[in-house]
């Protein structure tokens, strides 16, 4: 079962960036129907339909190159679906990890449905954003099930656990904001960094930036320019808030030596992600940088979720006292060995 899951994780590592590449290279409608390409198995079998579409709209979304990008993504998604289904089948037969396998299967079915809606509803931003968010959550859960659950858990106080849970929620919100920004073509709505269009508080329309606004306005409509600025600005504010919470998490959990490797990796990736976000703005979102930004977001979510799953909050007062004593022990040793203490200097 674990080998099957590891294979699914490897495939997801390829599939998610490929999905971002399809979207960023404007190939999302390379095959405008689902699940085939013009009802055919591959772009080769649909060559006549693709050629006809190109004659009608030479600069449109359909071309052989874009069709292959889209169909390659669908083929790999189909293989991933078979792997998850196989894992669920084994879990059901062996009566092991059935709840987790069922959750993965449900998420996969939802993701497949959203993949269909993404194409048939012509890339509606709300559907594209939900598709992205669910895909990253599915990857994080696959990674957790394949690797994370074999790592030993660490007993911690409830407050650091709540901070880590807040970090995961904020990451999900930030990924959703990033997906909403990309789906609405708002990645370049704010020029310059750290100011947005030369202002700390730019001219923007916050109310129209919310995902419910297009539905309230009557369906698939483009956001006004001021709303695009608001979406981009909110993504920056979200990044700042996320960094503050991440620093708090590292500070509160650093005393647990078993977690320091995870915390260092989390901090390193967050720093790289921040630099990539700035580079995206200053260099006008080149495709490699935008893809790297997407991949790091995926890894950050997986790491944060893995960290949260390793934490075991202790509810009993005896457990809390034991943890506080262990936390206080290194400080006591440090004070005893301090040079000023041994020599009688520094006010002793």
Q: Can you walk through the features of this model?
A:
The longest helix has 31 residues, at 64-94. Residues 331-348 have low confidence and may be disordered. The chain is flat. The chain contains 12 helices and 2 strands. The protein has a two-stranded parallel sheet. It is an all-alpha fold. The chain has helices at 2-24, 47-56, 64-94, 98-120, 125-146, 158-183, 212-216, 225-253, 260-282, 287-310, 317-336, 339-343; strands spanning 154-156, 311-313. Helices cover 69% and strands 2% of the residues.
Secondary structure layout plus pairing:
Layout: H1 2-24, H2 47-56, H3 64-94, H4 98-120, H5 125-146, E1 154-156, H6 158-183, H7 212-216, H8 225-253, H9 260-282, H10 287-310, E2 311-313, H11 317-336, H12 339-343
Parallel strand pairs: 1-2
Helix pairs in contact: 1-3, 1-5, 1-10, 3-4, 4-5, 5-6, 5-10, 6-8, 6-10, 8-9, 9-10
């Amino acid at each position: 079962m674990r080998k099957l899951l590891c294979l699914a994780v490897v495939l997801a590592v390829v599939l998610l960036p490929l999905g971002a590449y399809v979207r960023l290279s404007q190939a999302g409608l390379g095959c405008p129907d689902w699940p085939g390409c013009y009802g055919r198995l591959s772009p080769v079998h649909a060559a006549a339909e693709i050629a006809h579409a190109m004659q009608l709209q030479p600069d449109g979304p359909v071309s052989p190159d874009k069709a292959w990008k889209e169909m390659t993504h669908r083929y790999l998604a189909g293989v991933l679906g078979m792997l998850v289904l196989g894992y669920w089948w084994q879990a059901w037969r062996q009566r092991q990890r059935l709840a987790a396998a069922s959750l993965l299967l449900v998420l996969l079915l939802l993701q497949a449905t959203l993949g269909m809606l993404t194409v048939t509803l012509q890339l509606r931003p709300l559907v594209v954003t939900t598709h992205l968010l669910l895909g990253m959550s599915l990857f994080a859960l696959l990674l957790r099930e394949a690797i994370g659950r074999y790592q030993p858990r660490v007993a911690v106080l409830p407050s650091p656990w709540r901070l880590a849970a807040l970090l995961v929620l904020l990451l999900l919100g930030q990924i959703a904001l990033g997906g909403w920004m990309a789906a609405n073509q708002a990645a370049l709505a704010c020029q310059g960094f750290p100011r947005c269009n030369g202002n700390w508080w730019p001219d923007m329309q916050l109310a129209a930036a919310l995902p419910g606004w297009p539905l309230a306005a009557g369906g698939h409509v483009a956001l006004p320019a001021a709303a695009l600025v608001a979406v981009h600005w909110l993504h920056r504010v979200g990044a700042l808030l996320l960094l503050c919470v991440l620093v708090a998490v590292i500070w509160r959990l650093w005393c647990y030596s078993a977690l320091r490797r995870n915390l260092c990796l989390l901090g390193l990736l967050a720093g790289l992600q921040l630099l990539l976000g700035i580079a995206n703005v200053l260099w006008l979102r080149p495709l490699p940088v935008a893809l790297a930004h997407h991949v790091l977001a995926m890894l950050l979510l997986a790491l944060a979720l893995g960290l949260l799953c390793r934490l075991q909050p202790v509810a009993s007062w005896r457990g809390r006292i034991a943890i506080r004593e262990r936390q206080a022990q290194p400080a006591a040793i440090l004070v005893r060995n301090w040079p000023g203490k041994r020599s009688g200097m520094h006010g002793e």
